[in-house]
Structures
1.
Amino acid sequence: MRMVDTHETDVLRGQPPAFTSEAAAALAAELFGLRGIASPLGSERDQGFLIDGADGPLGVLKISNASEDPAIVDMETAAALHVCAADPSLPVSAPLLAVGADPAAAGGFEGLRHSCNASFGVCVLPSYL
């Protein structure tokens, strides 16, 4: 996963993603095959959306801050995959493979590029329902 065209290198000062729920739903469908309604989940420097289908939650779409080091985004994915492989009984959402366009090419706020990740096996807290 790679990011390009970022103006700020400090993730805490960089502009967070500013996708609408509709745009997030379209990205989830195009990139990961998750077809449903996107509901925003709070985040400080990234953007997260719960993707709900007709039968309940399908997964979570995470749109990383364009200023995030690509190695950090890759490490987060690798860590989740490792935990899922080491102990599948742990409540960790498994990353999904992209089925569409490059997940690192999602356009966003002020022309910045953001990486997208998605996972399934979602543990949804009641406050998000």
2.
Amino acid sequence: MPRSVANKLRQPRRRSAEMKKITLRFLLVLAAVSFNSGPSIAAETCQQIVANDLRKCGTQPAGLLRPVSELNGCFEVKIKAASPWNATGVRLERGRRYEFKVLPDKVGEDPMWYDASLDATPEGWTEESHKEMNSGSWFVRWYVAATDWLGYRRVTSQDWFYLMGMVAEVGDQLIPIGNGTTDTIQRSGEFCAFANDLPWTYRNNKGSLMLRVQELGK
């Protein structure tokens, strides 16, 4: 067989091998991008929902609650300091793991909310707020100490104004969120969130935090 004819027969084979290599490289790159950016893609498609400020957590019929799977597996909700419940109408499922994360404010600064005039972060009163209370009048110091001693703060194991989550339906599961956490749900129910305060003092609170909740699976 002439050499020129043999070379022409080899060319399609070489091109086919090169195309296979290019296709394989493309698939590997695509897989790496999907693996590394999967959570962020889901986060970008989080649905915005509005919490009910008045309804008590867990009072909405279970059939009317929306599972997170219907919200692209992720939702964002504004948690108001003045609301004792912030009932979302979203159902978290038993046995599934979720990520809870407080987002920066619109200008990229650390999120803040306020216990009356006291500054607080999602992790509770700031150091300055604690100093202000400790240096206040004898009545203020006595009032804070008495409510602590009597266990009137809603979650006594957490600081004043610490961001708390709750899953309520049959019994309640409390989730200390702070700036962010992950947790596995022990019983299905409606998700709500609140600032850790005295039950009767929410009206003088101000500000809000934007909370993202994302389902991670089992």
